[in-house]
Amino acid sequence: MNRTRMFLWQLACMTLSIPAFSCPSTYPDKQAPEGRKITASNGCFANKLYMMNTTTTEKFVIAKLYIRPASTEEFRRALETLAILTRKEAGCIEYTWYPEPAEEGTFTLIEHYRDQAGLKYHFAQPYLAEFVKKMEGWKSKDLKVYFLSSEPDALKEDK
């Protein structure tokens, strides 16, 4: 599978795993335009479309990290610690990572935050700064980071 298709597949998997897009029987706090509640009887697809239109501030980060083979185990331990701390942040919905099976020393991180404030909070944490500093000694080449959001211009400063 080429890299573009892999990225799109990862994005699709991430999008389908968003809790707001699941289909519980009702959304008691959400009202349909006519004032009726959105329920599963209206169809799961309709619920997803409605929720996508009302949940527009979520932020996603996908990062590719390239680690020297000699540093892989130390990196894995530090990354797992970072993941545990990040998942405890109030603005973090999901933080997951996995090694790329086809590329030794390559790891993909997928991060999902409630909003811009949650993302900013994460970037301001001392444990993230410490991890980034250690990355300089572990990396084999520069990382790639992709910021995604469901609304246009969402990654700009909050208005």
Provide the fold topology:
Elements: H1 3-16, E1 26-31, E2 37-39, H2 44-54, E3 59-67, H3 72-87, E4 92-99, E5 106-113, H4 116-123, H5 126-138, E6 139-149
Antiparallel strand pairs: 1-2, 3-5, 3-6, 4-5
Helix pairs in contact: 3-5
Report a brief summary of the structure.
This is Antibiotic biosynthesis monooxygenase. The chain has 159 residues and is an alpha+beta fold.
Largest sheet: spatial strand order = 4-5-3-6
Q: What would the CATH topology of the largest domain be?
A: Alpha-Beta Plaits
Percent in strands: 25-35%
The CATH architecture name of the largest domain reads 2-Layer Sandwich
H/I helix tally: 5
Structure description:
This protein has 159 residues and is α+β, with helices and mostly antiparallel strands. The chain folds into two domains: 3-54, no CATH class; 59-149, Alpha-Beta Plaits (2-Layer Sandwich), CATH 3.30.70.100. It is built from five helices and six strands, in the order αββαβαββααβ. The strands form two sheets. Strands 4-5-3-6 form a four-stranded antiparallel β-sheet. β4 (92-99) and β5 form a beta hairpin. α3 (72-87) packs antiparallel against α5 (126-138). The longest helix is centred in the middle third of the chain and has 16 residues, at 72-87. The protein is globular, with a radius of gyration of 18 Å. 11% of the residues are buried.
